C-alpha cells in the first residue's frame, strides 16, 4: 500500500507545525523546509484548516499554526481523512461501496487476508499521535531549519588535507 502525496504532505505540514508550537509559519517556510512545491501545499493547508487541525491567521503578519488539541490526533486518523481509497484490490469495496465482481469470490481467501492487512496497518497508525512522533522536537527543528538553525545534513567524511609546515616550507 502506498499513501498519496496529499497524505504525505498533510502529515508533513502537521509535523512541522507541531514542532513550531504556537509560532506562526508560512506555506513558504514549510515548502522550503521539506523541499516541496508551495503550490502543492496550498490545497493541503486549506483542507487541514477546514478540518480544524490548523489555524490560519490572515493579514500582513499572518500565517498558520498547529491547533494544540490536535497533538492527540493519531496518524491513522489523518491517513483515513486524507486517503480516498483503501480498496487494495478491485474486488474490495471502495469508498462508495462499489467493487468489481470476481469469479473466485465465493472461495477466495485473498480478499479477507488483504482486508486484515489493511486493518492491521491502520491499527498500527492509530497507536501513534502527532504529538508523539514529533519527539524529540529539538532534533526535528534542527533538521527542518527552524529558529535560524542550519539543517543538519549527513556529510560524507573526506580525508583531511595535509597541513603546510608552520614555517612556510623553508
Structural account:
InterPro entries: Tscrpt_reg_Rrf2, WH-like_DNA-bd_sf, WH_DNA-bd_sf. With 170 residues, this protein is mainly α. It folds into 2 domains: 1-73 and 129-152, Orthogonal Bundle (Arc Repressor Mutant, subunit A); 86-128, no CATH class. It is 43% helix and 5% strand. The protein has a two-stranded antiparallel ribbon with strand order 1-2. The chain is elongated. The chain starts with a helix and ends in a 27-residue tail after the last helix. The model is unreliable at 149-170 (pLDDT under 50).
Q: Top keywords for this entry?
A:
170 residues, mainly alpha, Arc Repressor Mutant, subunit A, 2 domains, two-stranded antiparallel sheet, 7 helices, 43% helix, elongated, disordered C terminus, DNA binding
* Strands ordered across the widest β-sheet: 1-2
- Low-pLDDT residue intervals, each spanning 5 or more residues: 149-170
Order of helices and strands: HHHEEHHHH
CATH fold node name of the largest domain: Arc Repressor Mutant, subunit A
Number of helices: 7
The proportion of residues forming helix, as a percent range, comes to 40-55%
CATH superfamily of the largest domain: Winged helix-like DNA-binding domain superfamily/Winged helix DNA-binding domain
Radius of gyration: 23 Å
How big a fraction of the residues is strand?
A: under 5%
Give the N-terminus to C-terminus distance in angstroms.
Answer: 67 Å
Number of strands: 2
Question: Which of globular, elongated, flat, extended, rod-shaped describes the shape?
Answer: elongated
For the record, what CATH class of the largest domain applies? Mainly Alpha
What structural category do the secondary elements indicate? mainly alpha
Mean pLDDT: 81
Largest sheet: 2 strands, antiparallel
GO cellular component, one term: cytosol
Keywords: DNA-binding
Protein name: HTH-type transcriptional repressor NsrR
GO molecular function: DNA binding; DNA-binding transcription factor activity
Amino acid at each position: 500500500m502506498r499513501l498519496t502525496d496529499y497524505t504525505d504532505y498533510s502529515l508533513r505540514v502537521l509535523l512541522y507545525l507541531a514542532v513550531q508550537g504556537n509560532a506562526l509559519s508560512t506555506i513558504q517556510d514549510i515548502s522550503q523546509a521539506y523541499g516541496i512545491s508551495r503550490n502543492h501545499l496550498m490545497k493541503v493547508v486549506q483542507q487541514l484548516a477546514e478540518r480544524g487541525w490548523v489555524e490560519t491567521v490572515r493579514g500582513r503578519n499572518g500565517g498558520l499554526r498547529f491547533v494544540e488539541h490536535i497533538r492527540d490526533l493519531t496518524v491513522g486518523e489523518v491517513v483515513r481523512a486524507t486517503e480516498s481509497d483503501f480498496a487494495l484490490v478491485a474486488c474490495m469495496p471502495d469508498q462508495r461501496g462499489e467493487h468489481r465482481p470476481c469469479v473466485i469470490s465465493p472461495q477466495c481467501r485473498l480478499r479477507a487476508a488483504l482486508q486484515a492487512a489493511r486493518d492491521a496497518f491502520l491499527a498500527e497508525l492509530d497507536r501513534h499521535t502527532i504529538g508523539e512522533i514529533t519527539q524529540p522536537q529539538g532534533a526535528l527543528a534542527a533538521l527542518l531549519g527552524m529558529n535560524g538553525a542550519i539543517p543538519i545534513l549527513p556529510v560524507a567524511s573526506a580525508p583531511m588535507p595535509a597541513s603546510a609546515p608552520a614555517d612556510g616550507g623553508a
